[in-house]
Amino acid sequence: MEIDFSSLEETMDRMGIKLIILGIPLIKMIVIAAFLYGVNQMFMVIYY
Description:
The chain is mostly helical. Helices cover about 90% and strands about 0% of the residues. It is built from one helix and no strands. It has one helix spanning about 5-45. The longest helix is centred in the middle third of the chain and has 43 residues, at about 5-45.
């Protein structure tokens, strides 16, 4: 059983790039959600 490291690395690179491309919108959504949650909490403190 011989492993071709060059093709393995290529696959890992492609997977990594895909994960990064998919991950960026997810990170943005989490940051925006956290920001909105924080703003919401601040308004709660101001109003009550």
